[in-house]
Design a protein that fits this description.
The structure is a single chain. The protein has 335 residues and is of the alpha+beta class. It has two domains: 4-166, PurM-like, N-terminal domain (60s Ribosomal Protein L30, Chain: A, 2-Layer Sandwich); 178-334, PurM-like C-terminal domain (Phosphoribosyl-aminoimidazole Synthetase, Chain A, domain 2). The chain has helices at 4-8, 12-27, 68-75, 81-94, 114-131, 192-199, 215-219, 227-236, 249-253, 275-284, 288-294, 310-316; strands at 56-64, 99-109, 134-142, 152-163, 178-183, 241-244, 262-266, 299-305, 321-328, 332-334. Helix 5 links the parallel strand 2 and strand 3. Helix 2 runs parallel beside helix 5 and helix 4 packs parallel to helix 5. Pathway: Purine metabolism; IMP biosynthesis via de novo pathway; 5-amino-1-(5-phospho-D-ribosyl)imidazole from N(2)-formyl-N(1)-(5-phospho-D-ribosyl)glycinamide: step 2/2. GO terms for molecular function: ATP binding; phosphoribosylamine-glycine ligase activity; phosphoribosylformylglycinamidine cyclo-ligase activity. Residues 175-333 form the PurM-like C-terminal domain.
Length: 335
């Protein structure tokens, strides 16, 4: 058989090898709801166990990890960005009260390297397993001429479920409510284009004195998943609103959940901004407002609860802290 397709840039055998390397990790995420197997044309997921919900609503979201893939490439470490992707997507549907059911992935590059692709997908599988979410299927694409040499793109879709009466939509938020922050683990999956530009000339493998770890370790810190903490809060306090702090930072993300006529006041002195953000700000001469719109600044998830529930919430999530309150008005005030 001729190998013209391979000579043109697409190696079918490499794709098959990648699937073999990730197959067991993917199967390990399967719950009893999964009715299909790796390699099927479509993933089958039973909704039979949703009978306990009066009005089950599916919640779906799609995202990527942006140019964090460039950091992974420079460090030649591929075991974390798959975890980043899954956790980011879980958090995005979590803010509406949904728990994850299954995840679908898309991994593409100019040239398939089976071990690299398997490391990425195995990371996704690890994050899915930790959240009780099935990695139901995906696509591995080799696209020379579309992606530049050495480039990798990673995208995912998540589907979750919430009972209609339990949807968190922010409509019950009122003036005086407390804003509680659960810390981020780092940059998460946003702001890497600016971070890479500012830190380009650093030795990423060297330990940075203010960070205590190599710069590449700090940049590749896995995006934190807030499923466990939010579920614990929902059982004990009145969670009126949730905001996942991604691209746009607190300034752009918090207003997305606020009812008309309400704003928020965030106190900068309520927490210590992590050293990595300070390094970017100081070395890049980035002004404070731009930092607050590009990065999460150490605030990964904001939880809005009545002021009377704030202490209970803090007791349930030991590393959380109050960063502000809901006020009459519009937008976010940084004070």
């Amino acid at each position: 058989m001729s190998d013209l397709y391979k000579k043109a840039g697409v190696d079918i055998d490499a794709g098959s090898q990648a699937v073999q390397l990730m197959k067991e990790a993917v199967r390990a995420t399967y719950t009893p709801n999964v009715l299909s197997d790796v390699g099927n044309f479509g993933g089958l997921f039973s909704l039979a166990d949703l009978s306990g919900m009066a009005h089950p609503v599916l919640v779906a979201s799609m995202d990527g990890v942006g140019t964090k893939t460039k950091v992974a490439a420079r460090a030649n470490r591929w075991d974390t960005i798959g975890q980043d992707l899954v956790n980011h997507c879980i958090n995005d549907i979590l803010v509406q009260g949904a728990r994850p059911l299954f995840f679908l992935d898309y991994v593409a590059s100019d040239k398939l390297q089976p071990a690299q692709i398997a490391a990425i997908v195995n990371g996704m599988a690890a994050a899915c397993s930790a959240a009780g979410c099935a990695l139901l299927g995906g696509e591995t694409a080799e696209m020379p001429g579309v992606y530049a040499t050495g480039e990798v793109d990673v995208v995912g879709t998540i589907v979750g479920v919430v009972d209609k009466d339990s949807v968190i939509d922010g409509q019950r938020i009122s003036a005086g409510d407390a804003i509680i922050a659960i810390p981020s683990s780092g940059l998460h999956t946003n702001g890497f284009t600016l971070a890479r530009a500012v830190l380009e000339d650093f030795d990423w493998a060297a330990v940075q004195p203010n960070l205590g770890v190599p710069l590449e370790d700090a940049l590749l810190a896995v995006h934190r998943c807030y499923l466990r903490e939010v579920m614990a809060l929902q059982r004990s306090v009145d969670v009126c609103g949730l905001a996942h702090i991604t691209g746009g930072g607190v300034v752009d993300n918090l207003p997305r959940i606020l009812p008309s006529g309400l704003g928020a006041q965030i106190r900068w002195d309520a927490w210590d901004v992590p050293a990595l953000f300070k390094l970017i700000e100081e070395h890049g001469d980035v002004d404070a407002l731009e930092m607050a719109r590009v990065f999460n600044m150490g605030l990964g998830m904001l939880v809005i609860v009545p002021a009377g529930d704030a202490q209970t919430a803090l007791d349930l999530v030991p590393d959380a802290f109050v960063v502000g309150e809901i006020i009459p008005g519009e937008g976010v005030q940084l004070v």
